[in-house]
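I had to read the description of the data format several times before I understood it. Each protein is reduced to its one-letter sequence and a matching series of backbone shape codes. The format is easy to grasp once an entry is in front of the reader. For illustration, here is how one protein appears when written out as sequence plus structure tokens:
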Amino acid sequence: MQEVKDHYSVALQTSLTIHRDRRRFLRGTLRELCLLIKDQIGLLGPKILFVWMALSFSRDEVLWLLRHIDIWPVSSGKKAKHADEVIDKQLPELLHYILELRSLVQQHEGVIQRYYSQYVTGYDALVLTDIVQSVEKLDEKESVLLSDFCADLLRISNQTMDLRGLRLDWFRFQAYVSIGRSSFSLSSDRRLAVTMNTTVFHLKMIDLLDEMLRETSDLSIYWFV
């Protein structure tokens, strides 16, 4: 119990400063990222992961502030100090950059889709084909599933807007090899697992951009839409 009290005391003393510094850093980072992308729209393709990271970190900080602003413990004689420490008058600026970055993704989703459709067919499909051909101990069903997955990757274009079936094939394969009678262990072939997971992420950049925006930066619970 004393250890919990100690951690509680440390959190009260340090968390406000930590989160305030994070929000300050994110404001500057998002501002620069927005300027960079508006100047070089093509960077949305190869740098989209940084966009998701920036949006996700910013969303988390906004949620932390809004959830704590009215419940932060304060003694009766420190209300004025509490207001200065907890209320962030620059929060609208952070929200502005979040919305601006979201808007850039929505306006130029075609750039992202074209980049990743070409990346999947020109790189992921070829690398996965080589990996699958070298994998041992696969039974017929598992081998056919992976081979068909690679073949389907080669036929993808930026006009292909529903890739759920491909992602489900990867989940089916994991289910097949997780049962006891399968002679293949996914943990023994890390390269296959990493490449498949990376490819699945790339597929999401083609047909699930709206879902990615929702996952990384949805603030509709507070009416920031």
About this structure: The chain has two domains: 2-107, 113-210. The CA atoms of residues 132 and 146 lie 7 Å apart. The two ends are 42 Å apart (CA to CA).
